[in-house]
Amino acid sequence: MLSRNATTQSLESLMQTILNRRRISRATQNTLMQSLLGKQQLNSHEQAQVEEIFEAIIQGRLRVID
Questions:
Q1: Number of C-beta neighbours around residue 35 at 10 A
Q2: Mind listing the pLDDT tens digit for each residue in 10-61?
Q3: Largest Cα–Cα distance of the chain, in whole Å?
């Protein structure tokens, strides 16, 4: 099992990859949602990244692909 710090780092890495690639697949979206829902609390950096992903989707800067 991953430590809390390793989980946080992998979650932040996943979100950064999504933002850098400017696309998210349904599988990656599911992985992201499971990771987010598996945490009891998000730190401020994670919250900012989640908000940035949602804003990018809404504004069309991030594509959702199958």
A1: 16
A2: 888 999 999 999 999 999 999 999 999 988 899 999 999 999 999 999 999 9
A3: 37
Measured distance CA(4)–CA(58) in Å, rounded: 30
Rounded Cα gap, residues 58 and 33, in angstroms: 17
Q: SS3 for 16-62, per residue?
A: HHHHHHCEEEHHHHHHHHHHHHCCCCCCHHHHHHHHHHHHHHHHCCC
Tell me if the pTM is above 0.70.
yes
| Identity of the residue numbered 39 | K
Q: Where does residue 50 rank: exposed (0-12), middle (13-18), buried (19+ CB within 10 A)?
A: middle
